[in-house]
């Protein structure tokens, strides 16, 4: 009589392998260091916060030292804060060259340029527009004030003029219309946030005269 020989296998059957793997994962989870999970959670939160850049100059206050800058103007030459040492300086930050509100604001400051000069005050306009765009803007509207190009937003952030904006329910980062008046000693004398164009240049001129 022939005998059937049953071969032994070193591999467990499929159901048994699945149960073993599941048990192993559960044991690993129980033995895991809870601090590592917490660290991962905090790291995730930190990364999320860093993904939303905010204005670096929101703590800029009246009486503080004006942040330095060195940027190109519309004619290609460079302008720095040191150029205006001993003089009062008005810096108005506008969202975009050529738009209606920004055009009116720039023209208002140009209209009052002689009055600002009479009280020892220079006026600068700043936006993130390229130099060529600033040049076209100044030429088209016959603006007498220098226009600074800050494409990398360094000055805008330093002066708190870069941050979150909203329009039609959409939130985005952009230039916040604002103005800063700098004393002859290089300190911030006045700050205007959420500027409304109408009558703003006249208000700034009155403040410059009072210094």
Q: Can you walk me through this structure?
A:
The protein is an alpha/beta fold. The protein is 37% helix and 21% strand. The strands form three sheets. Strands 5-4-3-8-9 form a five-stranded mixed sheet. Strand 1 and strand 2 form a beta hairpin. It starts with 13 loop residues before the first helix and ends with a helix. Residues 1-12 and 26-56 have low confidence and may be disordered. One of its GO terms (molecular function) is thioredoxin peroxidase activity.
In short:
This protein is an alpha/beta fold.
Assembly state = single chain
- Biggest sheet overview: 5 strands, mixed
Order of helices and strands: HHEEEHHEHEHEEEEH
Q: What Rg is obtained from the alpha carbons, in whole angstroms?
A: 31 Å
Fraction of residues in H or I helices: 25-40%
- From the 3D coordinates, which CATH architecture of the largest domain would you assign? 3-Layer(aba) Sandwich
N/C terminus separation: 120 Å
Biggest sheet strand order reads 5-4-3-8-9
- CATH names the topology of the largest domain as Glutaredoxin
Strand content: 15-25%
CATH superfamily of the largest domain: Glutaredoxin
* Protein structure class: alpha/beta
How many structurally independent domains? 2
Subunit structure: Monomer.
Region (Disordered): 1-73
Keywords: Antioxidant, Disulfide bond, Oxidoreductase, Peroxidase, Redox-active center
Pfam families: AhpC-TSA
């Amino acid at each position: 009589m022939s005998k059937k020989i049953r071969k032994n296998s070193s591999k467990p059957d499929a159901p048994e392998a699945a149960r073993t793997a599941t048990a192993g994962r559960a044991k690993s989870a129980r033995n895991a260091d809870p601090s590592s999970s917490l660290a991962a959670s905090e790291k995730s939160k930190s990364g999320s916060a860093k993904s939303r850049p905010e204005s670096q100059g929101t703590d800029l206050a009246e009486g503080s030292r004006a942040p330095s800058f060195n940027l190109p103007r519309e004619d290609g030459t460079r302008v720095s804060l040191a150029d205006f040492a001993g003089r009062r300086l008005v810096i108005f930050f506008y969202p975009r060259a050529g738009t209606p509100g920004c055009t009116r604001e720039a023209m208002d400051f140009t209209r009052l340029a002689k009055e600002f000069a009479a009280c020892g005050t220079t006026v600068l306009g700043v936006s993130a527009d390229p130099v060529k765009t600033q040049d076209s803007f100044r030429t088209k509207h016959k603006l007498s004030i220098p226009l600074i190009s800050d494409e990398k937003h360094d000055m805008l952030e330093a002066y708190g003029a870069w941050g979150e904006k909203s329009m039609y329910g959409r939130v985005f980062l952009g230039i916040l219309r604002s103005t800063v008046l700098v004393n002859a000693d290089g300190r911030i004398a006045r700050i205007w946030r959420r500027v409304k164009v109408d009558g703003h240049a006249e208000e700034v001129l009155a403040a410059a005269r009072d210094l």
